[in-house]
Amino acid sequence: MAKPATAVDPQVDFTPESLSTAFQKYRTELIVMPMFTMQPALAHMAIRTGIRYQEHVHEMKGNFEIGPYDKYKMGQGLVEITQRTLQTYFGNCIEPIDVNAIYQSLWGSDINKGEGLKNTPWTKRVCAYIMAQLGEKLYDAMWTAVRNDAGTTTAELFNGFCKIEDIEIAAGAMSAEEQNFFPLTESITAENAEDVINDFIWGNGTTWAGVHKKLRDGHSLKLFMSDRTKHLYEVAYQMNHGSLPYNQQFQKAHPEGKANIEFVALGNVPDNYLSLTSKNNILSLWNQKTADEKFLVEKSLTSHYDNDFIANLFYGEQYLSVNKEMLAVCKADPTAASSGSSESGSGSSEGSANAGTEGAGSESTGTEGAGSESTGTEGTGSESTGTEGENNGQG
To answer: Which pLDDT score, from 0 to 100, does residue 231 have?
Structure first.
């Protein structure tokens, strides 16, 4: 490709050494680039770093109260300590970088920038773009990811919040009786969105008592939903209350009468889903503190023209506690879906020569909610009895 006469050489040498040097020079900036890309969600969560594989937190429970004096009174003295595991998963990314394509992009899109190209740190910009792409994929999968040891994509690296909830529901730790899971039986529409959210918070008078009063009255609560669900709520509110004198704007930041509950509408949250919790209880888990998290560029092993971008990263998610005072979720019952799929598969198998589809239930590995402050990590939790960290010697 001939260089135009008026073009100025960008003075960039995209060698493995230059890119790798850029990663090392700007490591402190680049390593947090995925977090910046995920900021729309992370701004409403607690971030914990320094978690390599697993760390355990604990929550103390008991039923103690003072009553009228009785010299013969004797309580049970029962204190229950439950453990919850915070886990990050080790993943990697190996992608080729076409050096010639970068050169062509420079000449094609920046030809008119003249002298400005001379001082542009292109190696840093390429590295930052790659790291931001990793963050975008993590952001997209935050609720919907399902861990698959044999997987190859970000959506198979860790368990997202929906899968974490499914495991707890299958284990019986979350249910309508426990007052932390409200099964949704219909899709959220512009006609029922306001009713669904109000029923979720306050109860429907029959099968659901509403979220627990301690959760409902907590501070800095986040009601996570899809951006579409929030739009439907706002449409429903205008249809139902458009003539109210105090209804001055279309957008709503809180449910009616609950200013302590903030709507958090995100594009990566699935439709027909609501999750109410505090910022301290919903955790984004990272490592970022050990040498096995590497970001480097080396000469490709498969092409004479390419360089290979190599990244190793720990990431995971968890609720610090799933008890009714800390979390409540509204969505379709995953156990009912599994049961229905299984029955359908069995009938299909019996009714034709073709094999039917068998439904499988979620593996029950969840534990009851926990809360503690983790030594050497960031983010705050509920009152605790201490943190017990485990860094497994894998790498």
So the answer is: 95
**CA dist list (Å): 377 to 81, 133, 387:** 21, 26, 10
Q: Which amino acid is present at 4?
A: P
For residue 270, which amino acid is it? P
Would you call 89 helix, strand, or coil by DSSP? strand
CA atoms within 13 A on the CB side of 155: 6
> Are 379 and 48 within 8 A, CB to CB?
yes
* 74-122: pLDDT as tens digits: 777 778 788 888 999 999 888 877 766 665 555 455 444 444 444 446 6
Tokens matching residue 227: 């951006």
Question: Two tokens at 395?
Answer: 């790498």
Helices (H), 31-121: 33-37, 39-42, 99-109
CA distances from 67 to 3, 71, 74, 78 (A): 89, 12, 11, 17
Closest C-alpha among 86, 61, 116 to residue 314: 86
Report the DSSP beta bridge partners of residue 81.
60
Say how many residues make up the chain. 395
Q: How far is CA 130 from CA 18, 93, 94, 135, in A?
A: 15, 10, 11, 9
State the DSSP string of 296-311.
EEEE-SS-SSEEEEEE
How many CB atoms are located within 10 Å of the residue 170 CB? 18
pTM, 2 dp: 0.73
Residue 308 forms beta bridges with which residues? 96, 298
Residue 187, both tokens: 């899709």
